[in-house]
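Q: I'm writing up a methods section and want to include an example of the input and output format. Could you take the sequence below and give the corresponding predicted structure tokens, formatted cleanly so I can copy it straight into the document?
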Amino acid sequence: MVRTKVLVGPVTALLAICGENLMSQDIKIDAMPRPRQGTTECRRLRRHGRIPANVFGHKQAAVPISIGVEAFRPVLATGHKVVDLTIDGTAEKALVREVQWDTYSTEIQHIEFQRVDATERMSVDVPVVLRGTPQGVVDGGVLDQQLHTLTVEATASSLPDQIEIRVNDLNIGDVIHVSDVSDLPEGVTIDTPAELVVVQVNAAVEISEEEEAGEDVTTQPELIGRKEEDEESDDK
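A: Here is the clean output for your methods example:
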């Protein structure tokens, strides 16, 4: 695994790009043309363990296809975004551009694949994964991860599956900005604004006993007009 250090002011965080994934071959998926379209046909495909999908890009017409659910599981398990898609014996590299799930996020409804070239640069959102327990959290602080993805620009062959940041050395008050994540593999750049905070450790906010007690006090609403009615009753 390729690891590079990222200097964060007084703190040194370890940024780990999944080098093993970068060097491995892309996941291979066999697809079938989808001559019939529409809601009824898509439902039929899902009942038979297949996922409706489209392939578009490179100034070519979009091609409706379907792939097996099991064939796509390695993509979900690894987060790998570039696959080798084979349609009618013809293989081409494709980026998993969009995955549509059902309401309960249990079944994939549709997938959008975008044709790419191995040397073509593209902009993709890559997940940020934090590793380790910050010293500041051990000391009573609270970990606050503000960015869960970073937009990176890279070729299809060098696109990382995720960016791991080691946060063990973060103390209370320490912050990692996007600009601190600077040592990336060759050809990979970050497009996310540099001034944004990726993660920080905040001091825990103490709540006094008086404040806690105040939260339990129920204030009854004043009944408008009650005082005037009582005064009128006293005059009679």
